[in-house]
Amino acid sequence: MPGGAVALVVAAGRGERLGSQGPKAFVTVAGRPMLEWSIEALRASPGVSEIVVALPAGAAPPDGVTAATGGETRSESVRNALAAATDGEAQVVLVHDAARPLLTAGMVADCLDALESGGGWDGAIVAAPVSDTIKRAPDGQAVAETLDRNELWAVQTPQVFRRAVLERALDAPPEVLAAATDDAMLVEGAGGRVRVVEARHANPKVTTPEDLALAAQLLGAG
Ligand code: C5P
Fold first, then answer.
1. Of 157, 75, 167, which Cα lies nearest the Cα of 110?
2. How far is the CA of 124 from the centre of ligand 1 (A)?
3. Which DSSP category does 6 fall into?
4. Is ligand 1 within 6 A of the CB of residue 96?
5. Ligand 1 center–CA 24 separation, angstroms
6. Protein residue whose Cα sits closest to atom 17 of ligand 1
7. How many domains does the chain have?
8. Is ligand 1 within 6 A of the CB of residue 97?
9. CA geometry: angle at 42 spanning 41 and 46, to 5°?
10. How far is CA 32 from each of CA 93, 187, 220, rounded to the nearest angstrom?
């Protein structure tokens, strides 16, 4: 249905730390390509009107999604995917990393509900409270600071934003886009109000072979 949220799945990373043959999003996890798990959750989400996937060069898109070409950086991939969206009526954009295959329709709904929860939010992002004590050690050795754990959240995807706000935030200089590790960072930098939404279940990012094994175990058990 046009006018829902456009979901952008960024799947164009090379995944060098995984050591796989091909691109990370197409590595098999619990019996199917990693990307397919996220697509299935988005297809099951009534609030999502269109799914756009930013793909590595030469990769075939899953059935029924809009394909976009990945960029040099994650932010460029997001920008390309948003530019490829055909649902011009959609006022909300969801961004999700294909590297997080534990996405569920429940998590998508939590984000979309949080955006409309009152408070004039421009963005709502899934995150988990941290359980470790976090210290800064900029040179890799000497501890410079211990942060207050009670205030800290480990940020994940999905992240949802008002479309106009995200479009403005992505219209940033290349060096700002290259330094951004998530989209909320760009929206915050542009003055947007972003809230966290506690992840309702484990939602790890697959970076290393150990992460892949954990994701396969969690998906297999689900
Ligand atoms: O680099 P990282 O693992 O944090 O990437 C997060 C997500 O961004 C992954 O799903 C990856 O495929 C995607 N990505 C992308 N284009 C890039 C770099 C990363 O779509 N140039």
1. 157
2. 20
3. E
4. no
5. 9
6. 74
7. 1
8. yes
9. 110
10. 26, 33, 11
CATH of the domain at 147: 3.90.550.10
Q: According to DSSP H, which parts of 90-159 are helical?
A: 105-115
Rounded Cα distance between 207 and 186, Å, is 23
Per-residue pLDDT tens over the stretch 23-57: 999 999 999 999 999 999 999 999 999 999 999 99
Predicted TM-score (pTM) of the model is: 0.97
DSSP 8-class letter at 16: G
Distance CA 145, CA 150 (A): 15
Instruction: Tell me how far the alpha carbon of residue 110 is from its chain's centroid.
Output: 14
Q: Which residue's alpha carbon is nearest to atom 11 within ligand 1? A: 13
pLDDT of residue 1: 62
Quote the tokens at residue 209: 């072979």
Q: 27 CB less than 6 Å from ligand 1?
A: no
User: What is the extent of the structural domain holding 58?
Assistant: 5-221
